[in-house]
Amino acid sequence: MKKLKLKSVLLALVLCTSALSLHAQNDGIPVTSMSRLRGLGGDAAQFDQQSKLQYNQMLNEAHKKDAVATERNPQLIRLRAIAKRLIPYTARWNPDAAKWQWEVNLLNSPTVNAFCMPGGRIAFYNGILTKLNLTDDEVAMVMGHEIAHALREHAREQAGKNTATSLVARIAGAAGAAYFGLDPRLGDAVGGGAAKVASLSYSRSDETEADLVGMDLAARAGFDPRAGIALWEKMGAVNKAQPMPFLSTHPTGKNRINEMNKQMHLVLPVFARAKGLDANKLPPYHSLALPRS
Predict the structure, then answer these.
(1) 4-62 confidence digits (pLDDT tens)
(2) According to DSSP H, which parts of 106-226 are helical?
(3) CA–CA dist 236, 242 (Å, integer)
(4) Is pTM, for the whole model, over 0.85?
(5) What average pLDDT does this structure show over 83-100?
(6) Calpha distance 168→128 (Å, rounded)
(7) Most CB within 10 Å of its CB: which of 14, 20, 162, 239?
(8) 106: which strand partners?
(9) Which residues of 41-62 are buried (b: 16+ CB within 10 A; e: fewer)?
(10) Domain residue ranges in the chain
(11) Of these residues, 103, 146, 153, 157, which one is catalytic?
(12) CB-facing half-sphere around the CA of 100: CA atoms within 13 A
């Protein structure tokens, strides 16, 4: 009789755990199918290989100019720690991400920029960390946004769109650091050929998706998704004084902030659960002031 009761209790626990796990997968920002236009952008494996070659070329050239942060750099250590928390949740948005060889590097440049190439190759410019005085939550939102572009294969989708409209010449060779909005000044480090690859601006829908997927990734990793609002407000404030390369391919504005606010109710409970907090009693989010110019 006792064994039967014990089995019943264990079964109940298993069912409860399974239900909680299923709920954890289904809450947050809903996962949707990726665009079929990706198929017109070329073979995924070849696209990834070209991306890897250009990323490595960029790093090699940057190393020659002593423009890559060393392993002991506190900001690089910080970036890698944040990435380590985000990466486990990427496969929800693209199952292939579980097999990616993730990299995180920091480029010693005052440029306000960051990107993530296909295959999980991330790079931040030091300028985005210092000029915006980003909190860890805000860094997670930048990183989540850029990772989202890679997860949802927006670059290959954009290549497909260009092919469909007979503009494939603009992206001959596909991939490349350029379409992630790399600053032309760092083009010296990217190398002559790669620097000439035309930049691709993502569509408004791609940018919105990257914002929302980034919020979802950050929330699951225990970063406050409300930091996304503070981030883009900072971006807008700094851009008024000095136009930033980041915003040439990542347009800011009230519309994107409004869209994030509309979906905030979906990710705040996810964040609260990750932190062990009551979603209805979350303390206000506090950002850091912009550095004085």
Answers:
(1) 554 454 444 444 433 444 445 679 999 998 766 565 546 677 778 888 898 999 999 99
(2) 126-130, 136-151, 154-164, 187-190, 192-195, 204-220
(3) 10
(4) no
(5) 97
(6) 31
(7) 162
(8) 124
(9) bbeeeebbebbbebbebbbebb
(10) 37-279
(11) 146
(12) 28
